[in-house]
Amino acid sequence: MKKFFGLSLLLAVLLSACKSDPKKEEIEVSDKAETSKEKMLQLNSATIQSNQFEVCKENECPKVQLDYLVAKGENAEKINEQNESYLIEIFNSTPDSTSVLTLEEAAEKFIEDYFKFKNEFPESPATYEAEISQEELVKNDSLLTYKTKFYLFTGGAHGYGATRFLNFNPKNGERLSNADLFSDEKAFTDYAEKKFREKFKITSENINSKGFFFEDDTYKLPENIAITEDEVLLIYNPYEAASYSEGQLELILNKNEVQQFLNY
């Protein structure tokens, strides 16, 4: 009897040890969900304005409005570094631009250049202006695309504005080149040229017969290409394929018609 009681007691202890603790399980599930959420790539907005700089609190500054994306989560640091360098390059196209490390430094340098200009030409009515806006265009497991619109004015007859696409592989944070977007770039280019000729009614063999600027009279894909769920967007910014007065040229292709040439 004592032996039976001892075995029963041992079995009860073992069963008790194996029994799950619901509270502990809930904590473990919660921790896993929190870790997964932290790894998930999220995009937030950040802003830099001229009124945040000390010099602009006592002086009339040029308009600076920079609204851009900041990633958080897996590979965010690499994406943010590349995006910031990309945005700084916009300012490096201005006169007397110098190398800076952050977007805030680029904005501050832009303001300093404005005051130098005003000191040299105090009677000039011209002002400077810098605007950047950035938004998420595509975000899925294999592709992340930022759409950036900007406008810079540093005197002269007119400023310069453009639309640009920045493509990333979210799995490793690497920036994608245009060539990375295609499985068959040659076939895609041939198809795009056909659609470009149709849109702009180019019947001549000479693609520049309507005033375009293609080098060696040979069609070329634009620098800015984006692949959305349903479309492939091709953007030719001013001076890229035509004069400034022609503005931005767009060619939008149905994705279903070119899917066989794409990697995404």
Protein architecture, described:
The protein has 264 residues and is of the alpha+beta class. It has two domains: 40-175, Heat Shock Protein 90 (2-Layer Sandwich); 179-261, Actin, Chain A, domain 4 (Alpha-Beta Complex), CATH 3.90.640. It has helices spanning 2-18, 22-39, 76-91, 103-120, 185-199, 255-258; strands spanning 42-49, 63-72, 128-139, 144-154, 160-169, 174-175, 224-227, 231-236, 249-254. Strand 7 and strand 8 form a beta hairpin. It starts with a helix and ends in a 6-residue tail after the last helix. The model is unreliable at 1-7 and 28-35 (pLDDT under 50).
Q: Secondary-structure element sequence? A: HHEEHHEEEEHEEEH
Q: Which strand-content bin applies to the residues?
A: 25-35%
Tell me the name of the CATH class of the largest domain: Alpha Beta
Average predicted confidence as pLDDT: 87
Low-confidence stretches: 1-7, 28-35
What general form does the structure show? flat
The CATH superfamily of the largest domain is: Fervidobacterium nodosum Rt17-B1 like
Rounded to the nearest angstrom, the distance between the terminal CA atoms is 73 Å
Number of domains: 2
Helix content: 25-40%
Q: From the helix content, strand content and strand pairing, which structural class follows? A: alpha+beta
Number of helical segments with 4 or more residues: 6
